[in-house]
């Protein structure tokens, strides 16, 4: 892998879960990191300190609500003011809500479409002029297996993730003659602190042992019977950001323990 010095990665939703895992992997390869996500100030300062102490990279946090266009513009402007450039954009931020279509709240539909899809569009729109100016950039959209297949009660999420894959393809076509690429990663079940908490809640309710419930959960969808790790997603982002992947364009890469090939 080419070691890219002085490259900056903007990773949305990077104060926890998959996004934080991506930030750690990219920082480990020398990327400066522009963090964005929810959390109290003490937690965010701890994340910044840990990344700096581990990897010695530059790190900056911008508090921005990605459902608001002005906040997205502010996030990019602040990042450019601090680093001077944004070379890799990882659209990871997202949210979920489940309900049958006829019961799905309008506000939840709008929130999920805004955060999971529209924010990616507006962020790409904001960073593209700078990537075009440098004739180099990597746009990585964290989609989902639900960009490839559907599940009941997830109308908004499935619609947004399918749309994100469409957006990925369009951007890839529009940048095909440049050194800017756009690809998507489609994770299945990823083992995050949130998933761990969900399993522990079931354990506390007396439904079984932690290991049994963990295996039961992942086995419902993934034939491998293993969760994807945040480290694996982070390393795939590093691969997609590498010079060797210049001709990998518009891909939707499933990382799902064989879920979507069934």
Describe the structure in your own words.
The protein is an alpha/beta fold and 262 residues long. The protein has one domain (8-190, 229-261): NAD(P)-binding Rossmann-like Domain (Rossmann fold). It contains eight helices and nine strands. The strands form two sheets. Strands 3-2-1-4-5-6-9 form a seven-stranded parallel β-sheet, with helices on both faces. The longest helix has 29 residues, at 106-134. It is globular and about 55 Å long. The mean pLDDT is 96.
SSE blueprint:
Layout: E1 8-11, H1 17-28, E2 32-35, H2 41-55, E3 59-61, H3 69-83, E4 88-91, H4 106-134, E5 137-142, H5 155-174, E6 180-187, E7 190-191, H6 193-204, H7 210-219, E8 228-229, H8 230-241, E9 252-255
Parallel strand pairs: 1-2, 1-4, 2-3, 4-5, 5-6, 6-9, 7-8
Helix pairs in contact: 1-8, 3-4, 4-5, 6-7
């Amino acid at each position: 892998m080419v070691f890219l010095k002085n490259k900056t990665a903007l990773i949305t939703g990077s104060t926890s879960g998959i996004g934080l895992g991506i930030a750690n992997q990219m920082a480990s390869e020398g990327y400066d990191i522009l963090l964005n996500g929810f959390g109290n100030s003490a937690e965010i300062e701890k994340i910044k300190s840990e990344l700096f102490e581990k990897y010695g990279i530059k790190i900056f946090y911008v508090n921005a609500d990605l459902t608001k266009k002005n906040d997205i513009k502010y996030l990019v402007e602040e990042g450019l003011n601090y680093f001077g450039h944004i070379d890799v954009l990882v659209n990871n931020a997202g949210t979920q809500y489940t309900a049958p279509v006829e019961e799905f709240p309008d506000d939840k539909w709008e929130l999920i479409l805004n955060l999971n899809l529209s924010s990616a569009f507006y962020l790409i729109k904001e960073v593209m002029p700078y990537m075009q100016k440098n004739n180099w950039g990597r746009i990585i959209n964290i989609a989902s297996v639900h960009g490839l297949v559907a599940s009941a009660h997830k109308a908004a999420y499935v619609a947004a993730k399918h749309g994100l894959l469409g957006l990925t393809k369009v951007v890839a076509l529009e940048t095909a003659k440049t050194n800017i690429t756009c690809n998507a990663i489609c994770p299945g079940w990823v083992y995050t602190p949130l998933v761990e908490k969900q399993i522990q809640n079931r354990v506390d309710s007396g439904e079984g042992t932690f290991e049994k419930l963990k295996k039961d959960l992942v086995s419902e969808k993934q034939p491998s019977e293993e969760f994807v790790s945040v480290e694996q997603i982070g390393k795939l982002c590093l691969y997609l950001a590498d010079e060797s992947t210049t001709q990998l364009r518009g891909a939707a890469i499933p990382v799902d323990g064989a879920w979507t090939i069934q």
